[in-house]
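Deliverable D4.2, example record:
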Amino acid sequence: MEPDRLTTPRLEAWLSRTRTPLDLLALMTIWLTILPFTGSTDTKGFTSWTISRLALSAIYGLDLLVRARLSAAPHRYVLVHPVALAAVVVPPVRILFSLRLLHAMFRRGNLGYFLFVALALILNGVVLVYVFERDAPGANIVTVGDAFWWAAVTVSTVGYGDFFPVTLGGRITAVTLMGIGLVSAAVVTAQIASSFMDQASARRAALAGDEDVELGPEPPSRFDLDDPGPPPDESIHERLDRIEALLRSGLADE
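Output generated by the structure prediction step:
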């Protein structure tokens, strides 16, 4: 059975409410996925990492059960959505669903949405660089405050150099944050420039509309040979005749 045939109105309503929050949850917990590779946590015992890992699986598992219950064929829904099932077993797979977030980030008018996702990625970088660096020999990023300050100057491309990563994982995280900072600056600049251009266009259109209302159509020129205009007033000719007569009489007296 095709996935589209399993869709029902109630399932569509559930997806519209939960898809974005769950995708954001996947983005905000990238650090949890990478944490075991830093060597700073014990993933074998019943630790905070294990509790967080199980909590993510429970959330995605509950979402899958609800989606299957609301579908047209609950017993078939799980089979035709293997990626969703894999996200329950291995939560990092859910990041694949977050790719649509990255696509939506760059749509025009989604500046707030873009900044929120960028902030989520930056917070991941803060956690990761702190975990990578805190116990490394010669490290200078040893507190969460140091990590936040370093992330701020890195994303803003200021780069004071007072804090810097010394581990390979920390430097990879730094390069990623630099890329996020450059893209964020470009997107914000483009949005501001586009806003100014739209405002200028609106003002020009408003001024053009006011001129049309106040001035109306331009009258035809009196010097247009094809349109001689209205005939002159007869009183003007009479006045000119009187002036001419006075001038002639004056000349005759002289």
